Amino acid sequence: MDCSSLSLPHRAVVMSSTFCSSGTGVSTVGAWNHQNELATKYSRSNVDCSSPAFSSSCGISSLKFHSGFRDLSIASSRSRQRRMKGRGNGWNRNSLKGGGIVCTAAGVDRAVAADEFVGWLKEQEFPDQVVSIKMFEKEGLGCVATRALKAGEIALTVPENFCVTAYDVNNHPVVSAPAKGRGDLIGLTLWLMYERAQGQASLWYPFLKLFPEATNSPLLWPSAERDEQLRGSPVLAEVKERIAALEEVYEELSSTFFDKEPRTFPAEGFSLTAFKNAFTVILSRASYLPSADIFALVPYGDCFNHKGDCEAFLDFSTEDEAVVLKVDRDYRVGDQVFVTYGLDRPNSDLLISYGFVDPSNPNDYLTIEVELLEADRLKVLKQQILQQAGFDSPQTFPLFPDRFPTQLLTYMRLSRVSDVGLFAKIVFDQDVMIDQANEYEILMLLMGECRVALQEYTGSSDEESRIANDKKASIREKLAAQLRLSEKKILINSMSALRNRLAPIRGIPVKGGGLKDPNSDLLEMFDMAEQIASAPSKFLNNIFKK
């Protein structure tokens, strides 16, 4: 199987709907950029509205909801070796000094381990840095400025021979064979499993001591707890898919290597649990270096904490032959220095890849996938229009808590047009309504999709907030509540935006001086359906109040 599909770093949430509204604090994003650039592309032309996100099939086009998790396609290791080699002779034990600190990752004092790690780096002649590692009460390990820093200044320089990359994995005497052709993340996972199995004998031990045994990623949650905590969220299907893929890879490795060579791959260190644990650690600790097109474990560099509005990131400098970090803002002495773990990463991605949720994530989004209907007699002509504008069928769009792409609305308007004469009104770079009937139909369908999506969740937003702030709740309960809350926010804001956009369309003057809804019969049926759907929860709420 193609293990590069396990490169969990980012997926997109798929929801079926399309809407746009301007009036509820939501703005429209414009052009788009697939996968990693998905959110960025549309951020240049957005509709100001209350957020978006839903999925399903409405009779016009196919719509689906997904989490914002994105896949990173990994180039072959061979092509990267010329750009960044890593340790090079990393498997010559004489290349590292010392390393015999007896301690296990589980239960270790991370502050003490950090001090020992820094001391170990100095023994390896690691260059002095203008940041230092510090233990924070909430974030854990982080980095602070040891002197004032200006935006654009290099705050960290890690020579490439201190990094662990696919080059090191490919030249490893033990894990190179099972890692062959399996992608960077799987290769680094096998490297970590091997080094962990060596215990204190590993020359990388001071570095590995800083790693957790595993993360809080839902990839590791017990199935019953996972299904319960992620119920209603599109992340649940994504997690199940990734777990199945991981287990398939492990079965292949086990039958081909682990079971056949138990002395080389001891059961305790190469079990399925050990494999999954190591994989989540690599997901959270490995940095993607775009200039080298490679994932790397970067000592010291992996101690920086993420901040949603930060644009600074680790990257490889061919000039310095090192991984460097240029800060994106000024810092004073003692300030914590932040990085981004990836621009435009939604909370679903952060949870799966890193095991945390950012309640104030400015880049959170769900994605919606739209598609022309096969039965549409004008489908061929519509596809030509889409292709000329750079779109496909199906097509994925991001939906944010405060905005969504104008192109999403245009796409949906086109999907509902039945008169060829109206094709001339299709404009993808502007928010242009075709006619009221077309607009009304689209917005009403989207409103319905939002309601359906919200009903998939159990509990109200107030209940989610209570769990997220409950000191007695487990970390998984809190994380799941934060995720559900952020996804509900997108849906609720979207519905608010839709209502604002529908307001001027719903009413038309009548002789009596009032306003009559041109689609009053449809609206009455729509509102009745909403009341019926919410009746069970209202009944139960009334029971508990007595």
UniProtKB/TrEMBL annotation:
Domain SET: 129-342
Alphabetized GO MF terms: protein-lysine N-methyltransferase activity
Keywords: Methyltransferase, S-adenosyl-L-methionine, Transferase
InterPro entries: Rubisco_LSMT_subst-bd (IPR015353), Rubisco_LSMT_subst-bd_sf (IPR036464), SET_dom (IPR001214), SET_dom_sf (IPR046341), SET_RBCMT (IPR044431), SETD3_SETD6_MTase (IPR050600)
Domain of life: Eukaryota
UniProt keyword S-adenosyl-L-methionine, yes or no: yes
One of the GO BP terms on file: methylation
PANTHER family: SET DOMAIN-CONTAINING PROTEIN (PTHR13271:SF93), UNCHARACTERIZED PUTATIVE METHYLTRANSFERASE (PTHR13271)
Protein name: SET domain-containing protein
Natural source organism: Marchantia polymorpha (Common liverwort)
